[in-house]
Amino acid sequence: MQHIKILIVDDEEKMRRVIKIYLEKEGFIVDEACDGKEALEKFDMTQFSLVLLDIMMPEIDGWSVCRKIRNESSVPIIMLTARGEEYDKLFGFELGVDDYITKPFSPKEMVARIKAVLKRSNANNKLDTDIIIIGALKFKTKSMQVFLEDTEMTLTPKEFDLLSFFSRNPEIVYSREQLLNQVWGYDFIGDLRTVDTHVKQLREKLGKYKSYIQTVWGTGYKFKVGEYNEKSFK
Question: Residue positions of the PTM 4-aspartylphosphate (predicted)?
Answer without folding.
Answer: 54
